[in-house]
Amino acid sequence: MKLETTEWIDKAEGDWTVAQREMQASNPVGNVVCFLAQQCAEKCLKALLEEHNIAFGKTHDLVVLLNSSGALLPELHSQRPSLAHLGTFGIDSISRRAGGPAGCRRLDENSRQRASRSAGEAPTSMNRAERRHQSAC
Question: Which residue did the predictor score with more confidence, 81 or 95?
Fold first, then answer.
């Protein structure tokens, strides 16, 4: 595995760890959990693209990153709606909202849980694909 890929994965795992820890807190900060979940999925997708030498430019759009992966992870394409939803918690979406971060919507428990599930599916699918790729080499 390339060093750059490992760095993306390490950062994604850190985001995931902190998001999970925050979810267990007595008073979790929902927008932080959702943002970290989005960041985890973004970094996992970028790790996949990096490992396969696919340029991705400067984007935080999960669907754009997924589309860039082509057929590398066909099982992840079924998660497109979840990734699109998760993308609404990313930095680009926050910046586009009127009033910036202060204008962000309040998150209910369902939104936090859905974002967390969506982020958790990305690394699981990518790990399966990577094991499949390694066994083929």
Answer: 81
